[in-house]
Specification:
By secondary structure, the chain is an alpha+beta fold. It has five helices and twelve strands. The strands form three sheets. An eight-stranded mixed sheet has the order 4-1-7-6-10-9-8-12. A two-stranded antiparallel sheet has the order 2-3.
Length: 215
């Protein structure tokens, strides 16, 4: 299990949401990248130095500090989309190999390299920017049906990371709530909504939404 690349965004125009910019265009960077806990959602801050988000209402902040996606899933999408997909193209900060990102438990902790510890917090929900960026009609629906969303993580211990750093799972909580299950509950299978509530590390926003929808 390791990092294939660390990807940092560069601002692009965002006509798909009517915003001034988007940071979805993530590109692999050479050398170490500092990782630290950002401020709360609403500031545009994220966990990687040099990166940020522009849709501050829906992205960024402590619970969405870092976004990880598996290279294995990108490889699968290459066949369906009929084009090569470089590391970072889904807007992920971390492109991993050998890690079951969607099967990770909410609250699971990863040590990356020697210093950084990240905690799995929630699933990525696709938006109009993602669909527009990939120039694929119906992409939100197709991505949702596949239920391979990738994982947001919060920063527990800061430090530097770089491509080829090993990833070690150092903690797994005592429940069965995975990233994929949370995603399915929030999108395709509302009957699952009570199940994510047992995951203590699920963001408060997600818990409140699950309670509201399952009431």
């Amino acid at each position: 299990m390791k990092l294939l690349s660390v990807n940092v965004g560069r601002p692009r125009p965002n006509p798909w949401k009517g915003l001034s910019a988007t940071g979805i265009d993530k590109q692999p960077v050479d050398g170490p990248v500092a990782v630290s806990a950002p401020g709360p959602k609403g500031t545009g801050e994220v966990g990687l130095l040099g990166d940020r988000v522009y849709d501050v209402k829906h992205h960024g902040g402590v619970d969405q500090a870092v976004y990880a996606y598996a290279r294995e899933d990108l490889d699968g999408w290459e066949g369906e989309l009929g084009r090569p997909l470089h590391n970072g193209v889904f807007g992920e900060n971390l492109t991993t190999v050998g890690v079951d990102v969607n099967g990770a438990l909410i609250g699971e902790r990863w040590r990356i390299g020697s210093d950084v510890v990240l905690e799995v917090s929630c699933a990525r929900i696709p938006c109009a920017t993602f669909q527009g960026w990939l120039e694929r009609d119906g992409w939100i629906r197709r991505f949702t049906q596949a239920a391979r969303p990738g994982a947001y993580l919060r920063v527990i211990e800061p430090g530097d990371i770089r491509a080829a750093d090993p990833i070690e799972i150092v903690h797994r909580p005592d429940h069965d709530v995975t990233v994929a299950l949370v995603f399915r509950a929030m999108t395709l299978e509302p009957d699952l909504l009570p199940r994510p509530l047992v995951a203590e590390a699920l963001p408060l926003e997600g818990k409140e939404l699950a309670r509201k929808r399952s009431a």
